[in-house]
Each structure stands twice: as C-alpha cells, then as structure tokens.
Amino acid sequence: MDFNANDSYVFFVGQNDPYYKGSIFKTINNINAIVKKYNINKYVVVSLTSKRRYEIVDDMNDVLKEEYKDHYLDFRTYLLTNALKDAGIQATKQDTTDITQHKIPRSLLNQDLFTGNKSFNDLLANQINEKMKTVGYLK
After folding, report:
1. pLDDT band with cut points at 50, 70 and 90 for residue 34
2. Beta-carbon contacts of residue 124 (< 8 Å; ≥ 6 apart)
C-alpha cells in the first residue's frame, strides 16, 4: 500500500481489536508504527464500539483518547447519545435497554449485534467527515 504524508487517514479500531491482556496497547503500537514509518500527520483514530464484545471498552477507549488526543474520535459515546436521533430512528424499547446497559442500540447493528448496519456506517462516515473538518484536514 502506498502512503502519502499529505493525505488523511482513518484508523477504525471499531470492534475488531483482539480481546486479550494488553490488546489496546498492541493496537496503539501498531498504529504508531504506521504513522511513524510513513510520516503520517493527518489521521483520525476511531474508538472501539462494542461493550458486548469488550466489557472494558470504555477503559480501552480512555487509553486511546489519552494517546491520540485531538486525533481521537469518540464514536462510541456518540452512538450512545445522539446517533439514533441523527439517523432519524425512533428508539425501540430494546434500544433504550441497550443504552441503559451502555451497549450500542440494536437499531444500529446487524443481527450479529456486533457489526454496524447501514445507519451505523452512514453515521460513522459523517462523524469522520466532521472530525476531519474540526482538525483542519478538510474544508
């Protein structure tokens, strides 16, 4: 893969980080190695999302936030607060229960309750676009 130091990049940690001791630190090391090797300055690191898969997701995201500061996009918090409204989705009883349990609302997930559906992905694209504008990568 070719990298251009003037391009903008997205590292979507999402729901695919392996779940074992120290996994978030390995992810950070991998992202940092790519950033350093290819001299990347414009990038966004998107949070983990799934508490169903990672019980300590919020702690892991705190580590990402601390490491990446302005490069970090807290998509998980957005999914739990404003996403349904922004997607024009009326929260179901199950969505409300999910949010109360700090889990991503089912209306934003595929049947596996793990991967995001079209609404999730559209919201993610919009949030990345807004973040890139905020940090000055896009006008």
Report:
1. very high
2. 12, 46, 75, 116
Dihedral over alpha carbons 78, 27, 3, 42 (to 10 degrees): 40
Radius of gyration for the alpha carbons in the chain, expressed in angstroms and rounded:
15
Buried b (16+ CB within 10 A) or exposed e, 96-118: eebbeeebbbebbbeeeeeebee
At residue 20, does pLDDT exceed 60? Answer: no
Give the whole-angstrom CA distance, residue 136 versus residue 139. Answer: 7
pLDDT tens figures, 74-86: 999 999 999 999 9
